Amino acid sequence: MSDAGKLARGMLAATHPAPAAMVTLFALALALRVEPEVGRALLVTVTVGAGQLSIGWSNDWLDAARDRQVGRLDKPTVRGAVTAATLRTGAFVAAAVSVVLGFAAGAGAGLANLGVLLGGWTYNLWFKRTALSWLPYAVAFGLLPVFVVAAAGDGRSAPGWMVLAGALLGVGAHVANVLPDLEDDRATGVHGLPHRLGRRGASVVAPLVLAAGCLVTMAGPPGGPSAATVGLTAVAGLLAVAAGALGLLRPRSRAPFLLSMAVAALCVVQIVVAGAAVTG
Question: Does residue 5 share a domain with residue 130?
Answer without folding.
Answer: yes
